[in-house]
Amino acid sequence: MISAPYLEVAVLVLGTVILLIESFSAKLDRRYLGYAALLGLTFIFLATFFVAPQSTTSSAPFWNFYSADATSLFFKRIALATTTGVIVMMLDFAPLVSSGVQGTTPQSGLGEFFALPLFTCAGLMWMSSAIDFVLIFVSLELVTISFYVLVGFTRRNPASLEAAIKYLVLSAVATGFLVYGITWIFGATGETNLQKITTVLSRSGFEQNAALFGGVLVIIALGFKIAAVPFHIWVADVYQGAPTPVTAYLSVGSKAAGFIVLLRVLEPFLILPQMQTLLVAIAVLTLIYGNLAALPQTNVKRLLAYSSIAHAGYLLVAVVSFSGRAVAFYLVAYLLMTLLSFAVLVLVSQPGGDQLESFAGLSQRSPFLAFAMLVAMASLAGVPFTAGFLGKFLVFDAAIATHHFGLVVVAIGTVGAGFYYYFKVVRAIYWDAPASSTDKIIVSPLTRVALIALIAGTFVLGVYPQPIFDALR
Q: What is the DSSP letter of 270?
């Protein structure tokens, strides 16, 4: 049995070792560093099943900041699994990275490209265990700074640089909101630990207005991270300009960490009725805008960007209902179907770009990739017997149980819009004629195994969700 904090330490050590090898081994094929990262992440993922239970009687100051309960371990596994899938995509994307980085060797920058997701993963894992605003802030900044570099990594690409600047400026604004909100909460309660803040807020006669104002500022900051309306302004341009594996990482990893922090932060504040009203309004706006804005999109990355906003709306419905089980399952389902769609996009977009036309006739060029994208789009839309359908069902069930009937009506209405824009991609794959080239798309064995695992997970969790519920206990 090992102690939970050693998991993050192991990820940091792995990332540091890869950076050192990159710096001092000039003749090494940099793709081996990607395979080393995959192997290391696999061992760390397996180690999460051998974590010693956190001592509830421990009085060490560290445990006032860090939690090693079942929920935090579950989200650590999500962070590790997401990072593993992203590095598999990065191996396929490596030729475009080398051409987009000014360097003296053909593989310039690849070592850093494989190492940065590991530091991001460590930040995501710390965020899943953070129960104090101090650790939340530090881990959130580690994640965000790593994403700054990753988004603008192909610095010879103007679109990537534009995306990096937009993400940098707006994330800095969000950080300002977060710090200012924490300051107000600390001034009102005298605490930064979330459990102690809950105790203070529940006292009779406590003046809640200052703490409520601080809580709203923190919600605004987290709204940027989870891409909720009206804090979504950066999403489409950043998703389109960033390298495709980084877009997938932003879409899944950042959102998962944002929602676990949101659940922990809201726990003391949901006793205030004004906070619940604010969250309902944000959820409604996010559902409507995300789905309607995706309808006219012809660029697949922008379509998936607005889809990400829409799915943040469904997750917010579960948050408003305070159903941690629905949030956790939906995030796992979202991980499977989003990584699957982006993994196909990496392979299809290299010769033809990100436009919908590049998917035309994909069923003739690669029947396997066509089927994988069909499964991803069906699950994102919510077709029965997929993980996406069961995720939406659990969200609606939680909302009905807490009498949020208006939210359910809006959410069900927007699902219909999702069917339209997701199956535009399916129509292009199976019905549209290929534009010019009908060359077969080569899928590496590692990528094929990863795609098969994602497809299998989408179907298995669509009919048997019990493993996810067991992991949360």
A: T
Q: What is the DSSP letter of 433?
A: P
- Looking at the structure of the chain, the number of domains it has is 1
| DSSP percent split of the chain into helix, strand, coil, nearest 5 | 75, 0, 20
Q: Enumerate residues 6+ apart whose C-beta is below 8 A from 249.
A: 82, 83, 86, 117, 120, 147, 150
Distance CA 264, CA 251 (A): 20
Residue 81 inside a domain? The answer is no
Triad 129, 282, 337: Cα angle to 5°: 60
Query: What DSSP state is assigned to residue 50?
Result: G
Confidence of residue 57 (pLDDT cuts 50, 70, 90): very low
- Angle between helix axes 367-381 and 324-352 (nearest 10 degrees) is 150
CA distance 156 to 100: 5
Q: Which residue carries 């940065």 as its tokens?
A: 116
Query: What predicted TM-score, i.e. pTM, was given to this entire model?
Result: 0.89
CA distance 392 to 98: 40
CA distance 92 to 332: 23
| Cβ-based neighbour number of residue 406 at 10 Å | 11
Distance separating alpha carbons of residues 348 and 354, to the nearest angstrom: 8
**Is 133 part of any domain?**
no
Q: Are 47 and 444 in contact (CB under 8 A)?
A: no
In 10 A of CB 384, how many CB atoms? Answer: 11
- Cα–Cα nearest to 351, from 234, 238, 436: 436
What is the DSSP secondary-structure string of 27-53? TS-THHHHHHHHHHHHHHHHHGGGBPP
- Other C-beta atoms closer than 10 Å to the C-beta of 425 total 23
Q: What is d(CA 94, CA 29) in angstroms, rounded to the nearest whole number?
A: 12
Other beta carbons less than 10 A from residue 412's beta carbon: 13
Angle at 81 between CA 76 and CA 83, to 5 degrees: 95
**Does 352 reside within a domain?**
yes
Residue among 275, 257, 170 at smallest CA distance from 218: 275
Question: Confidence class of residue 54 from pLDDT cuts 50, 70 and 90?
Answer: low
Domain that holds residue 381: 272-473
CA 106 to chain centre: 31
Task: Find out whether the peptide bond into 467 is cis, omega within 30 degrees of 0.
Answer: no
Q: What is the pLDDT of residue 330?
A: 92
The answer to whether position 93 is within a domain reads no
**DSSP-derived secondary structure letter, 298:** -
Q: Kindly report whether the peptide bond that precedes residue 273 is cis, defined as omega within 30 degrees of 0.
A: no
Looking at residue 435, its pLDDT comes to 67
Residue type, 274: Q
CA distance 384 to 389: 5
Dist. CA 31–CA 111, nearest whole Å:
8
